[in-house]
Amino acid sequence: QVQLVESGGGLVQAGGSLRLSCAASGRTLTTNIMGWFRQAPGKEREFVAAIGRSGDTTYYADSVKGRFAISRDNAKNTVYLEMNSLKPEDTAVYYCAADLSLVITTLASKYDYWGQGTQVTVSS
C-alpha cells in the first residue's frame, strides 16, 4: 500500500508560480513511477507529468512543457511539481499518483495509488 498526500496548492495570479509536493508513505517511493494529473470542473482527469523511479526520465503534457518541472527526492519519499508561468487554464485539482509498473505511462487508469488532490486556482 502507498499513501499519497499532496500539498502546496493555492490561489495565484497569472504568470505566478507554485510548487506542489506529494509525500508518500507505506512503501518506499523508489519502487514507483510517479505522476501528476489534474482535473478541472466538468473535464476529464488529464496527464500533466511523470517521472521514472530514479528521476532520470520525465514526461510532460504539451500544455505544460517548458513551464512545469517534475522532480523527486527518494530519500524524502517526496515528489514535486514546480509550476511556473501559470495560466488561468491551469486551474484544476492536481493529483499525485503512483504506478507500480516498470514503464512510464500517461494513462490515469494505469496508476495504482492516488492522493486526495490539491486545488490550484490561477486568476487572470
Overall number of strands: 11
Oligomer kind: single chain
Share in helix: under 10%
Judging from the principal axes of the Cα atoms, what is the shape? globular
Strand count, sense and barrel status of the largest sheet are: 7 strands, mixed
Average pLDDT, rounded to a whole number, is 94
Report the order of strands and helices. EEEEEEEEEEE
Question: Segments where pLDDT lies below 50 for 5+ residues?
Answer: none
* Approximate strand percentage: over 45%
Ends apart, CA distance between termini = 40 Å
Find the structural class using helix and strand composition. mainly beta
Number of helices: 0
Radius of gyration: 13 Å
List the helices and strands and how they pair.
Elements: E1 3-7, E2 10-13, E3 18-25, E4 33-39, E5 46-51, E6 58-60, E7 68-73, E8 78-83, E9 92-99, E10 113-114, E11 118-123
Parallel strand pairs: 2-11
Antiparallel strand pairs: 1-3, 3-8, 4-5, 4-9, 5-6, 7-8, 9-10, 9-11
Keywords:
124 residues; mainly beta; seven-stranded mixed sheet; four-stranded antiparallel sheet
In short:
With 124 residues, the chain is mainly β. The protein has no helices and 11 strands. The strands form 2 sheets. Strands 2, 4, 5, 6, 9, 10 and 11 form a 7-stranded mixed sheet that branches. It has a 4-stranded antiparallel sheet with strand order 1-3-8-7, with no helix packed on it.
Q: In words, what does this structure look like?
A:
With 124 residues, the chain is mostly beta strands. The chain contains no helices and eleven strands. It has strands spanning 3-7, 10-13, 18-25, 33-39, 46-51, 58-60, 68-73, 78-83, 92-99, 113-114, 118-123. The strands form two sheets. Strands 2, 4, 5, 6, 9, 10 and 11 form a seven-stranded mixed beta sheet that branches. A hairpin with a 4-residue loop joins β7 and β8 (78-83). The chain is globular, with a radius of gyration of 13 Å. It starts with a strand and ends with a strand. The mean pLDDT is 94.
